[in-house]
Amino acid sequence: MRGDLERVLFDEPAIHRRLDDIAAQISNDYRDRELTVIAVLHGSLMFVADLLRRIPLPLKLECLSAASYHGKAQTSGEVIFKLDTASPSGGGQIGLPAVASRDILIVDDILDSGHTLAAIREALETAKPRSVRVCVLLSKKKQRAREVDTDYVGFEIEDEFVVGYGLDFRERYRNLPYIGVLRKELLEQPDR
Questions:
Q1: Considering only CA atoms, which of 123, 132, 134 is closest in space to residue 81?
Q2: What are the phi and psi torsion angles at 138 (to 5°)?
Q3: Euclidean distance between the first and the last CA atom of the chain, given in angstroms as a whole number
């Protein structure tokens, strides 16, 4: 899989050093409060697991599945939430975690177009949490379709397609322990 990358942007030690810094900021900002972390699946899985182990606060972890890429290299602009199918009375409604009067931290892998994070934040804010903040591992330096305020950012990157450390292309490369730029010709190949 290493051969599929143009270059490595952030190796494992660099990622872990940055996680230490972010965890210290979050721990300071939420001291004396219980935090509810909403992990945006599947891309944030590695990031949220490593980050939360560094935060010595009482917290709850919830997961929310949302996507706007749908197997493509660019966002479709349409955000799809995984529906709550456990409840027959759900009626096709989005299954949001209980967040009323709670301090919420949304954790996602990457801020790109802004569609996904904006939709998640809007959906959660309808439940009247005490506060909502956003933490992303990567933020692309680009004009966004929807602006999203971030409170914690691991790294800012150029507008390149990256994989590894939870980030994928067609559900591959998530297990790489580093983050790298995927070779452009692979983005144009049919699903293999």
A1: 123
A2: -130, 145
A3: 14
CB 179 within 8 A of CB 164: yes
Tens digits of residue pLDDT in 104-117: 999 999 999 898 89
Catalytic residue (one of 50, 112, 159, 191):
112
Structure token digits, residue 4 = 């599929």
The pTM of this model reads 0.85
d(CA 135, CA 154): 8
Q: Which helix (H) or strand (E) holds 59?
A: strand 59-67
- The answer to whether residues 27 and 57 touch, using CB atoms and an 8 Å cutoff, is yes
Is there a contact between 131 and 26 (Cβ–Cβ < 8 Å)?
A: no
Quote the tokens at residue 187: 């983005």
Q: Do 50 and 42 meet the contact criterion of CB atoms below 8 Å apart?
A: no
pLDDT tens figures, 79-91: 565 544 444 444 4
Identify the bridge partners of residue 61 per DSSP, sorted by sequence position.
37
Cβ atoms of 1 and 167 closer than 8 Å: no
Task: For residues 21 and 59, give the distance between their C-alpha atoms in angstroms, rounded to a whole number.
Answer: 19
Q: From CA 41, how far away is CA 67, in angstroms rounded?
A: 8
How many whole angstroms from its chain centre is CA 89? 29
112 is catalytic: yes
